[in-house]
Amino acid sequence: MNTPGNRRSLFRLAAVSATAAMLLAACGDDEAEVGPEAGGSIAEDYDLEGAELTVGSKEFTEQLILGHMARLALQTAGAEVTDEIGLAGTAIVREALLAGEIDLYWEYTGTGWITHLGETEPVQPAEDQYQAVADRDLEENDIRWIEPGPFDNTYAVAAHESAVEELGITQLSDLQQLLEEQPEEATFCIASEFATRDDGLPGMEEHYDIEFSQDQLVMLDEGAIYSEVAERSNCNIGEVFATDGRIAALDLVVLEDDQDFFAAYNPSVTVRNEVYEQYPDLEPMFAEIAASLETEVMQELNARVDDLGEFPDEVAEDHLREQCFIG
Questions:
Q1: Which of 32, 53, 93, 322 has the fewest beta carbons closer than 10 A?
Q2: Which pLDDT tens digit goes with each residue over 79-90?
Q3: Which of 3.40.190.10, 3.40.50.40, 3.40.640.10, 3.30.460.10 would CATH assign to domain 19-152+265-322?
Q4: How would you classify residue 324: left for phi > 0, otherwise alpha for psi between -120 and 50, otherwise beta?
């Protein structure tokens, strides 16, 4: 659907992309080869000459962008990098890290705590969630978690701005009244994984003391949910990931998690401890990059790929150049 609101959103995204391109000139030649000779703060501050490292990632847009950021940063610091970006889903990439088939990849603190460490209750606040994951995973699996970035790719529930206005839903606790007073409008698009996870629908229903009937739930593939919520033909609300660029592009509004149910999913480079100890520059270098990744920044980077058709490696490189990490 190409509504005036959606066209405005796409124009804004195009403007963001154009502005980013112009800002690159402030840090150097945007045609320069990536490596120690290209300059930038990474080349000046960190030395990984002689390191041979394998970078992995999961296969969705955000992970591809983050994976290429890691690859480019390592190459700029002088490392020789084997590219396993876009390897597969969570379980396979994590197993590759544990088995030593890859040396590092970006993971999310909530995924570490709930999926990898088998916990069911998130830790609040986000800083404590990170520390709990970092301590446990190092002790049990010899995996280091580098200081995470501020963006939070948590599960969230979103509605189109028109539904927010018409139905009066701005926070998750409003769903209780919607279910009671307008049950025919309480249609919820979800994916199969969200439908069964403790940090998904079952936990959310218990935490907020609500219950959706089977008639109100619409099961879809993850990627199809955003447009369905925007069009409102089958559902008025839907499960989303908070940093997905389609939220802004389709004029969706994330409902406030006003009772703090969803776990924090902050991004952290996870690395095998033997590699971490051999190359101590990994910690400050990736912590610095992570700190540049606010939620709105990650949404815009994702949207440049998903909505404007740019390539993840080019978007990753643009961000590193804009931040003067590479020259």
A1: 32
A2: 999 999 999 989
A3: 3.40.190.10
A4: left
